[in-house]
Amino acid sequence: MAAQKGFTGDEMRRLLRRVRTATLATLNREGGIPYGSLVNLASDVDGRPVIFVSELAWHTRNLLADGRASLMASELPATGDALTGARVTVMGRFLPCAEERVRRRYLARHPEANFYAGFPDFAYWRLEPELIHAVAGFGRIETRMPDEVFPPAREMTETEDSAIAHMNDDHAEAVSRLARRLGGAAEEAWKIAAIDPDGCDLVAAGRSLRLEFPEPVFSAAQLRVSLARLSSSG
Amino acid sequence: MAAQKGFTGDEMRRLLRRVRTATLATLNREGGIPYGSLVNLASDVDGRPVIFVSELAWHTRNLLADGRASLMASELPATGDALTGARVTVMGRFLPCAEERVRRRYLARHPEANFYAGFPDFAYWRLEPELIHAVAGFGRIETRMPDEVFPPAREMTETEDSAIAHMNDDHAEAVSRLARRLGGAAEEAWKIAAIDPDGCDLVAAGRSLRLEFPEPVFSAAQLRVSLARLSSSG
């Protein structure tokens, strides 16, 4: 990996985790014109983007015919020229994804989707990244390869389930304290529903909160330290 | 034009006028993957979308190779599921556009672009619409043809220059009063910089405000009535 200046791969992946929505660009089935549409965004443990879409929608019909697509996520300034804001485009191919982990992680990020999660026309798709192009502000442009933005997170993927169970079973008080610090209501029973190298998703009563780790965490040992620190703080 | 239910062509065009940014989807020059990117959005008098982009950027490089593209604009709810928000995708072909009117209207909407308006790598492009697909909320989907969303606005296009001059020369006080009502500072000298069937853009000191007409206005006679009403109100 080359020395990185400006907008790093970690920062690109973390932006993709933070945003709740993105623009999906697919090839329109008739005529091949690129078709932009709005989607809610979630991520697999390693950061690969995940969407949950109905086959009644044009974008899904397009993906079924040709999986080539991109997702563009942005964080715009509240005022002034939007082009000073950061945005990341991940280009690649979408594949349908029936893994239980992906379903759980999507609903941890978008509990409002539980309302239609059982509809037979809906399915999860994961973007297999091929190229990432990002703009950190006016003229600050970076191009990255998939392994710079989405390095394999095998240990975190293997350890996610047991880390979630451990936190919810043995540190329920600390989890609710974390949720309150992020703006959650005290009377609700918050649970950790997803953990990845960049943070975790907490859910209660159809709401979701995201806690960002100060730095990316790629090993089970590092994760134990990070979670212990979070549990004892605040 | 068929009887319209739900999200009308007028409403789609008015949404495109209100938003300041949109996602452009182009065909990436290598590999043909649809590439989503962020752009500032303006409009010609009839509502056809206009962008101002640098040929150093990937999206422009893509448009130079293949003009097929779409623009997706959205108005998302402040809270709750983003998929309940309205969004409009205009598919078609972008063509470079050197008309002075288009330049003036773009800078009326985005005065911050005056900073780079003279850069030789920047140019204006107008989207020639072929198909419009809109979602007014969860599952409320409409498809429209160009003349339903962007009806010709010949009279308004012909009358825009003289209407702007008339308002700024003969009703300067009323224009500043309108600007103040929209949040403009009283001490600034506001001017009308663009007029179209859906409203007008006011500018002062590098800032821009948009005034929406209550209903679309397609004739010079209607416009005189609307502007007289605005000038005497507030």
What's the CATH architecture of the largest domain in chain A? Roll
- What's the name of the CATH homologous superfamily of the largest domain in chain A? Electron Transport, Fmn-binding Protein, Chain A
Largest sheet of chain A: 8 strands, antiparallel
What's the total number of strands of chain A?
A: 11
CATH class of the largest domain in chain A: Mainly Beta
Q: The CATH topology of the largest domain in chain A, please?
A: Pnp Oxidase, Chain A
Q: Beta fraction of the residues of chain A?
A: 25-35%
DSSP helical segment count of chain A: 7
Instruction: Classify the secondary structure makeup of chain A into a structural class.
Output: alpha+beta
The CA-CA distance between the termini of chain A, in Å, is 37 Å
The most extensive interface between chains reads: A-B, 45 and 45 residues
Would you kindly provide a written description of the structure presented here, covering whatever features stand out?
- The structure is a homodimer of 234-residue chains.
- Chain A is α+β, with helices and mostly antiparallel strands.
- Chain A has two domains: 9-149, Electron Transport, Fmn-binding Protein, Chain A (Pnp Oxidase, Chain A); 154-233, PNP-oxidase-like (Split barrel-like).
- The first copy, chain A, has seven helices and eleven strands.
- In chain A, the strands form two sheets. In chain A, strands 1, 2, 3, 4, 5, 6, 7 and 8 form an eight-stranded antiparallel sheet that branches. Chain A has a three-stranded antiparallel sheet with strand order 9-10-11, sandwiched between helices.
- The longest helix of chain A is centred in the C-terminal third of the chain and has 17 residues, at 154-170.
- The interface between A and B is large, with 45 and 45 residues.
